[in-house]
Amino acid sequence: MLGWIAASIPAVMWVGLLLVPWRPWSTRERIEADPQAGLADLGEITVLIPARNEADVIGLTLAGLQTQGTGLQVVVIDDQSSDATAQIAASFPNTRVVSGQPLPEGWAGKLWALEQGKAHVHTPMTLLLDADIQLQPGLLAALLAHKRHDNRQFVSLMADLRRTSFWDRLLLPAFVYYFKLLYPFALSNSSFRHVAAAAGGCILVDTEALQRAGAFASLRHALIDDCTLARQVKNAGYRIWLGLSRSVVSLRPYGTLRSIHDMVARSAFTQLGYSTLLLLVVTALFGLAYGLPFLLLGSAHAWRLGLIAWVAMMLSYLPMLRYYRMPLAWALLLPVSAVLYLGMTWSSAIRYWRGVRSRWKDRTYST
């Protein structure tokens, strides 16, 4: 009897995932650009772009903003760059370049740059945009229209990560998939207080909401700054919204397993609150969800339960593959991506135990 109960756990997990009402596997929360919309009046928005050694991409990011509409003000905070980031940014119209000061103790680099930039915001709304994010024509108008129609004070979009190699295709759609499982968009977008999430690459927020939430000083040490900011804005009584978009394009090239590892490992253990117990729980859950179904497939008595779990697992990933226009056969490799992500999480924990909380952009944040 106990054996059958144990064998049914992965099937219950995966079928339950498909049936929960908030549908974390769904891609229904989305906004795409309308290239036929024409140039919108964006005079109510100031864009803040923290940039550190982004000479390779900052020109494309700023060029994308030029196509969005009229009246848009752009502030680039040059965060101690050693390349031509500042010079490239200064060549664009309606763009102010702020020379960033040295990073103070206790601050994360991106948040310190934004803190310096916010003094230059005098508009009702602020767009927080990463230096490696390019907006397709019409995207900002569509995002603004959704914000107003839905009466939200904080809206953000998950960028479309470039998929140029086997490792990109294996791991980057799965990254978004796992993020949605961890932070179900439907719950984050609801009044439910215990889930709040955002995608830091593209956030359109009321400037007043930023100020009342205490940004950016109140979250100055946060490494997962987007979700921390979303939680503080939501707790301040404002309405937030998060969705997907293929029109918010990440220019950051990954391409290799190592580069994706570095991206994940810098904050994976932070996501678990630096808790060894939670790390062990996650490891056990991954073993039950991905390992046990394979073992059951070889069982003469419980193979049907293994097959149910396997099929439900594949079905939960198919909407993400369809959204990113990838062959559905990639769903067969979802367990492989799970093993790799679990390994990256352990790597993040090992870094922390060795005294490194995070490492990014030639900066190391110690424990």
TrEMBL record:
InterPro entries: Glyco_trans_2-like (IPR001173), Glyco_trans_2_hopen-assoc_HpnB (IPR017832), Nucleotide-diphossugar_trans (IPR029044). It holds the Pfam family Glycos_transf_2. The chain crosses the membrane at residues 6-22, 166-186, 272-298, 305-324, 330-353. Residues 46-211 form the Glycosyltransferase 2-like domain. Keywords: Membrane, Transmembrane, Transmembrane helix. This is Glycosyltransferase. It comes from Dyella lipolytica. The lineage of its organism: Bacteria, Pseudomonadati, Pseudomonadota, Gammaproteobacteria, Lysobacterales.
